[in-house]
Write a structure and sequence with these properties.
Blueprint: H1 29-33, H2 36-48, H3 50-55, H4 60-80, H5 83-104, H6 118-135, H7 143-148, H8 151-164, H9 168-193, H10 195-200, H11 206-233, E1 240-244, E2 253-257
Antiparallel strand pairs: 1-2
Enzyme class: hydrolase
Binding site for Ca(2+): 14-15, 17, 19, 28
Family: Belongs to the alkaline ceramidase family.
């Protein structure tokens, strides 16, 4: 990558929000600061999942750290509109998706070629991610559209799990999560495809709403698949979906509580 890709405005992508209207140093001000949830939320999730990480799957914390990286990369991109920023933004989204899929996808959804081995599944997902990373440099303008297709397998897997889940709270969280995801995608499409219409209404900020809604959708999706994983493979741990700050307030922050703490040693990763 040459130095010109570090320059401001070197990305072929420019979102609907006007550039440098609020600050001479930040290209898209609202799109930049709307990533704040990616920076504030994950540290708290690391705290809530401390028992899960200790007794079930330490790599859960990798997901929360990657979400922070997503927020930082997105903020950098929208602040500079550089090609490097765009690629960092898009590739971190790809890697957090593939990491979550690799670590927490229930084995019954593995293709038969992997014979139920999570190691083989993780290896294949890593190879795919590396190949997709390399291809992302070929046509950067279409990367964002390609990433949108990741919502299809994620939603399908969530649908399959919600069909068999017995916990009504888990089911309700899945439905809310899907609804918010759809709203986020609607905001993304409108900002990208109908910018002139929204600009004429003096509201070119739907991509900022995308950032907020996609975080509110993304982290519960990770929580849900973390629940599916332990419920499927470690049922003796008696996982429970809980909410902070009050467990009876289902619009709080969801997390998975482990009710039977026992250290496991196997080849999950």
């Amino acid at each position: 990558m040459t130095w010109e890709h570090l320059e401001r405005g070197s990305s072929p992508v420019d979102w609907c929000e006007g550039n440098y209207l609020v600050s001479p140093d930040i290209a898209e001000f609202v799109n930049t600061i709307s990533n704040v949830l990616f920076l504030l939320g994950p540290p708290f999730l690391i705290y809530l999942f401390k028992d899960y990480g200790k007794f079930i799957q330490p790599a859960i914390h990798l997901i929360w750290v990657l979400l922070i990286v997503v927020g930082l990369s997105s903020a950098y991109f929208h602040a500079t509109l550089s090609l490097l920023g765009q690629l960092l933004d898009e590739l971190t989204i790809l890697w957090v998706f593939m990491a979550t899929l690799s670590l927490f996808c229930p084995r019954r959804h593995f293709p038969k070629i992997f014979k139920g081995s999570r190691k083989r599944f993780c290896l294949s997902m890593s190879i795919f991610s590396i190949a997709a990373t390399a291809l992302s440099f070929c046509h950067p303008a279409i990367n964002a559209f390609a990433l949108m297709f990741l919502a299809i397998p994620a939603t399908y897997l969530l649908y399959k799990e919600l069909k068999i889940v017995k916990d009504e709270r888990v089911y309700r969280l899945g439905v809310r999560n899907t609804t918010i995801l759809i709203a986020a995608i609607v905001c993304w499409i409108n900002d990208r495809m109908f910018c002139d219409t929204w600009s004429s209404m003096n509201f070119p900020y739907l991509h900022g709403f995308w950032h907020i809604l996609i975080f509110i959708s993304a982290y519960p999706a990770c929580v849900l698949f973390a629940f599916f994983f332990v419920n499927d493979e470690r049922p003796e741990s008696r996982p429970t979906l809980k909410y902070w700050p009050r467990n009876d307030f289902e619009l709080g922050i969801p997390y998975v509580s482990i009710n039977y703490a026992k250290k496991f040693d196997d080849d999950e990763i």
